[in-house]
Amino acid sequence: MTSQALQHLSASDAVLKKLIGEVGPCTLKAETRCTPFQSLVQAVAHQQLNGKAATTILSRFKKLFPGRRFPRPEDLAGVSDDALRGVGFSRAKVASIRDIAAKTLSGEVPTSRQIVRLTDDEIVARLTQVRGVGRWTAEMLLIFQLGRLDVLPADDFGVRSGFLIAYRKRKMPTAKELLAHGERWRPFRTIAAWYLWRAADRAKKSA
User: Fold this and answer.
1) Taking 70 as the threshold, does the pLDDT of residue 143 lie above it?
2) b/e map of 106-125 (b: 16 or more CB within 10 Å)?
3) Which fold has domain 36-144?
């Protein structure tokens, strides 16, 4: 599937073809062992933080639940808000994590078995009912947990930065502009986004 995606993207977009040639094969792999609950909690932890800080907070969070690789939604009832704040979560993130747990237990957040049968739009609609979970967070789950191939997170700063760099734009593209350009990448917009992330990463390293 990846080779088919690269052929399609290279044929439909000369700039992306050049970027693919420079970066090499796509190494994106979905973390399919995560439940939707775990993926959402991890995504909330990463909101507005760099990866290292979020990883540290998640490590402390998991230590609140000894004997578990990752807590289950019902386990959250056994820890206080102060304990969650103590590992580094803001008040808003504590409220969001509590809501993720509650909506998982009530069935609004689908199980791993249920979610694979839903369309991308259905998943976004369900997940964005959760406090603190916006479209971007739902799209990260689609990409990194479910491995959906046609997701373009147009509000993602890294994707937009990569587009700015790769396409030599004079100003940051709007989400609308990015989505319009990205129509030519269907049905492999996820792979295109991955290459735009790499373009942004390369620019950071060379800065």
Assistant:
1) yes
2) eeebbebeebeeeeeeebbe
3) Endonuclease III; domain 1 (1.10.340)
CATH fold for domain 2-29+152-206: Endonuclease Iii, domain 2 (1.10.1670)
DSSP for 129-141, please give it: TSTT--HHHHHHH
Give, as one character, the DSSP assignment of residue 74: G
Question: Catalytic residue positions?
Answer: 156
Residue found by looking up tokens 């809501």 in the block: 99
pLDDT at site 207 = 61
| Both tokens assigned to 42 | 């991890």
Asked whether the CA dihedral 116, 122, 123, 129 is positive or negative, the reply is negative
Q: How far apart are CA 200 and CA 202, in angstroms?
A: 6
Where are the domains positioned within the chain?
A: 2-29+152-206, 36-144
Q: What is the pLDDT of residue 1?
A: 64
With a cut of 80, say whether residue 206 has pLDDT above it: no
Diameter over CA atoms, the chain:
54
- The model's pTM: 0.88
pLDDT over 90 at 150, yes or no: yes
pLDDT of residue 25: 93
